[in-house]
């Protein structure tokens, strides 16, 4: 079998790279794919990361090629070392994402190609001489970040190379909007729709006091950049005041938001919770959500 080679990304790779990214997205999130333009844009900058992206000083994209076919790719970031950069990221290098074909009988060289690509990533981080080496899996699609449990082949590559999971685990949940509660009148409680920090906000009031709010974001994609994300939204914030009746109020807030989402043509809603907070996960499952996957955030290179 001819050996795979690792080289810098060329623009001619864009279609094969996008296909590889979309294959990984499809294993995490149903009915979502990204366009070639979305992938190419992310290689240049990440406008959604308005805090960390300005800290990036260099970006490198590598591909593994076998028999003229892109079988793996990785996007690396180098963060500046000056005091304007957050302490965690200061003088850090990161594998922003790493995608590759899983081992299979018809692709016996897949594991070797993935390891070659990872060796090239580590060599690039060594040339940058960064203080710390991180890894992630944040391809340019909604809800695909950290290292999703649906990518055991990528996890295996990270672990063989000496990366270790040192952060939190999050549960990604999804609900059909049709399965969420419907609004029901309640004594003494009113709801107001306004613009929130992370989308449209629905606030519950009683006797002039805010009891809690939920924010839903229906603009997860810009239409000219994403090929297929129609009908998807996520919960940006859900907050209940300690003095309010949590479970019941959360249900009524979600009902108000769901009614608005139905008018918007949204049929699926995403949300995220810390895996350690099982009570919060259970509350969401009780109102129509189900677990989609779990993702392990913050990987750090700790060989040996």
From TrEMBL:
| PROSITE patterns reported in the protein's UniProt record | GNAT
Q: What region holds the N-acetyltransferase domain?
A: 152-304
Record's InterPro entries?
A: Acyl_CoA_acyltransferase, Bact_Acetyltransf, GNAT_dom
Keywords assigned: Acyltransferase, Transferase
For this protein, the record's Gene3D superfamilies field holds: 3.40.630.30
Q: Which domain of life is it from?
A: Bacteria
In terms of PANTHER family, this protein maps to: AMINOALKYLPHOSPHONATE N-ACETYLTRANSFERASE-RELATED-RELATED
Q: What is this protein called?
A: GNAT superfamily N-acetyltransferase
Q: Which organism is it from?
A: Streptomyces pseudovenezuelae
